[in-house]
From TrEMBL:
CDD domains: GST_C_AaRS_like, tRNA_bind_EMAP-II_like. This is G4 quadruplex nucleic acid binding protein. InterPro entries: Arc1-like_N, Glutathione-S-Trfase_C-like, Glutathione-S-Trfase_C_sf, NA-bd_OB-fold, tRNA-bd_dom, Tyrosine-tRNA_ligase_regulator. Residues 163-178 have a biased composition (Basic and acidic residues). GO terms for molecular function: tRNA binding. Coiled coil: none annotated. The lineage of its organism: Eukaryota, Fungi, Dikarya, Basidiomycota, Agaricomycotina. PROSITE patterns: GST_CTER, TRBD. Residues 216-322 form the TRNA-binding domain.
Length: 390
């Protein structure tokens, strides 16, 4: 791997940070000619100092809103260079100032905590000391639901009847008058139908607004859970019945998962895992399952193996798990996914594991990468790369 010519334009200690990160494990200055050109372009822009001026942070924030990395979906020298160039600016900002640039702050914190970057930065201390951010008190970004569509008013049904009445005479007129109540009666029934009370359990219009719009990953409620008890389903030797603590006041949930053939029961006991907690409860061979265990399936299929997606070692039952990205990080998951809307099924094909084994959702349109994480670190599959998550 040879660095682009643009690297020579960086001043020390920034250049040393980039070269040190490469030695520590940053895998590439670009895996294709196109990526290499983009990496070189970014490094050249960063070397001028224009990208990271305080007055240009707003523009940079817009560029980073839909990105996890600057180039493609992996960490490159361009990311290390931008992190290093941003360091003297962001390290001086107060919370209100960095809250105003959420994408830049999220990106910077992500890169500064990458293992090879941290290793190189530590060797150059105190120039690139870890910058702490108060994310716990960051203002929430609310996801606005799409406005409800206006219903078209039905055409007046009485018009033809009135015309018929005017044209008729004598007995015909009487018949027209006798026929007139029919549409009125129908209308009365319709009005009664519209006045039916909303079903128990909440406002119907609010429920529609909650999951309006295109399905997005932040609609899915992911949480850290711990297996308290596990046994094989008495009527299905391929299913486990697990009692899982998700940190809820209502107590642990019962979950059924088809993992018997893929993960030995000894490896499941007391396991800390990721659970999908807002699926509609379902009966599986007579046993109600109230959540789903998130697993990574090898890119060659189930027969090649399945692994549990693992939260960070510091995670505790009930910890919130979210998707990186300003549009997702502070969004509130749906209380329950509507099976008819196929939200999980629509989003799921974008779930994967990166080269770093990190769990992520890749936007199929923009190709932006949104890692799946707790407030402390990213969730990972133990060994799989390019796995499907479900």
């Amino acid at each position: 791997m040879s660095s682009p010519a643009a690297l020579a334009k960086l001043q020390d200690p920034l250049r040393s940070l980039v070269t040190g990160s490469a030695e520590a494990g940053v895998s590439s200055y670009g895996q294709s000619e196109k990526d290499q050109a983009e990496v070189a372009g970014w490094i050249e822009k960063i070397s001028t100092g224009e990208v990271v001026k305080a007055e240009t942070l707003k523009d940079l924030d817009s560029q980073l809103t839909s990105r996890t990395y600057l180039v493609n979906n992996y960490l490159t020298a361009a990311d290390v260079a931008l992190y290093g160039a941003l360091h003297p600016v962001l390290s001086q900002l107060q919370p209100a100032q960095y809250y105003a640039h959420p994408a830049v702050t999220r990106y910077f914190d992500h890169i500064q905590n990458a293992s090879p970057v941290r290793k190189s930065a530590s060797a150059l201390a105190p120039a690139f000391a870890l910058v702490p951010f108060d994310f716990a008190n960051a203002p929430k970004v609310e996801r606005k639901a799409d406005p409800p569509k206006e219903k078209k008013k039905p055409a007046a049904a009485a018009a033809p009847a009135e015309g018929s009445k005017k044209e008729g005479k004598g007995k015909k007129e009487v018949k027209s008058e006798e026929a007139a109540p029919a549409p009125a009666e129908g209308k009365q029934k319709k009005e009664k139908k519209e006045k039916k009370p909303a079903p128990e359990g909440g406002n119907k219009k609010a429920a529609v607004a909650e999951d309006a719009g295109e399905p997005v990953p932040s609609m899915i409620d992911l949480r850290v859970g711990k297996i308290l008890d596990i046994k094989v389903h008495p009527d299905a030797d391929g299913l486990y019945i697990e009692t899982i603590d998700f940190g809820e006041e209502t107590g642990p949930r019962q979950v059924v998962s088809g993992l018997v053939k893929y993960i030995p029961i000894e490896q499941m006991r007391d396991k800390i895992l990721v659970g999908v907690c807002n699926l509609k409860p379902a009966n599986m061979r007579g046993v109600k399952s109230a959540a789903m265990v998130l697993c990574a399936t090898h890119k060659d299929g189930k027969e090649a193996g399945i692994e549990l997606v693992a939260p960070p070692a510091s995670a505790k039952p009930g910890d919130r798990i979210y998707f990186e990205g300003a549009e997702f990080e502070n969004a509130t998951p749906l209380s329950q996914l509507n099976p008819k809307k196929k939200i999980f099924e629509t989003v799921q094909p974008g779930f994967t594991t990166l080269e770093t084994h990190e769990a992520a959702w890749v936007n199929p349109v923009t190709k932006s990468v949104h890692r799946i994480r707790t407030k402390d670190d990213v969730c990972r599959a133990p060994t799989f790369v390019g796995a499907s998550l479900s």
